[in-house]
Amino acid sequence: MTSRQIRRAAERTERKLARKAGRQTAAVQQVPLPPAIPEATAAAKPSRAEINRANALHSSGPVTPEGKMASSRNSLRHGLASGELILHGEDPAGFEDLLSALLADHQPANTTEEMLVHQMAQSHWLTQRALRLQNQCFTIDGVDEKRLALFIRYQTTHERAFHRALNTLIRLQKDRRRYETGFVSQKRPAAGQTIGFVSQNDAHAPQAPQILGPESGQEHLEAARAA
Q1: C-alpha to C-alpha distances, 204 to 113, 197, 209, nearest whole angstrom
Q2: Residue 4 belongs to some domain of the structure
Q3: Of 62, 89, 104, 198, which alpha carbon lies 20 to 30 A from 146's?
Q4: Tens of pLDDT, residues 67-125
Q5: Which of the four pLDDT bands, split at 50, 70 and 90, describes residue 7?
Q6: Domain membership flag for residue 151
Q7: Does residue 6 sit in helix, strand or coil?
Q8: Using an 8 Å Cβ cutoff, are 108 and 117 in contact?
Q9: What are phi and psi of 71, to 5 degrees?
């Protein structure tokens, strides 16, 4: 076999091998892939909550009392429904003055009446805060109607709570005074009235009736007829 024939045979062999490799590649590409499994993918991928917890481990958070207080108020928008009465920027002395004035006006005589006075002070304090927040809803850009309606509802709620506590306090104090007045009237005599025994020697004391015998009765009857 000549060198030319040998070269052509090698070329034919290479072309056959190339065509065979091409067919195998096409067959592999046509094989369908298995469907994805959502559960396995979800389990392999960490959730947002897990990522947040992992990130929180790298942060120590606020360490000073001021920082912790500010962090606790991050989600506080208006404080009209929170358990914190005095907010940042409000004067605690103003609330104490309000409470002292209400205590002086109503003079609570027991713990229940004092609690009602405290409730009145808190309700009035929150009502004034709702009014201030309503004023902030009016800006040069317009009116925030959604927040304004919210603050008006809170104002109405706290005003009703104030009057409810006030009416309850007035009713309790009225009942207490009525009870105390009735209790004292049973113990003390009326003005000008004396308590004691009537003297037997008193000339103005009523005399006991006399019992008459048969003879005396006959004599009185005849005297009456003669008259």
Answers
A1: 53, 14, 15
A2: no
A3: 89
A4: 554 444 444 466 677 667 888 888 999 999 999 999 999 999 999 999 999 999 999 99
A5: confident
A6: yes
A7: helix
A8: yes
A9: -65, -35
